[in-house]
Write a structure and sequence with these properties.
77% helix; 136 residues; mainly alpha; 5 helices
Amino acid sequence: MPARLNHLAVLAAAIAFFLLGYLWYGLIFTGLWTSLVGPIPMNSSPMVFVGSFLCGWVMAYFVAIALTNHEHPQAVRHGVEFGIFMGIGIYATMLLNGYLYTSKPIGLWAIDAGYVVLGVAVVGAIVSGWRKKVAT
């Protein structure tokens, strides 16, 4: 693992990603998302939330590792740009591909992809802007 990896920043980024998910799905898009998903049983056991948080934490580590060895004068901006670029370029396009095959509504794709694109941008901003000091 890179020596400059800030584990506290990764944890903070994972928490921010998890809280964004609560705001995104629990407050902002809850009604629309539920209507687009349709009648499916939702699992709201505590272990689902633990698993969800752990997935975000792993993702935050991958983003941090990808950004650790890059020096930019505007680190936060670079982290946001990286998150948007990777979120749209990889996640949103592949999610859309699956939605096209399963005939899921494009509105549902926009909500799901939007959360991850925005979330990875937030994670990128935190882990890129909150750098660990290296002894010189």
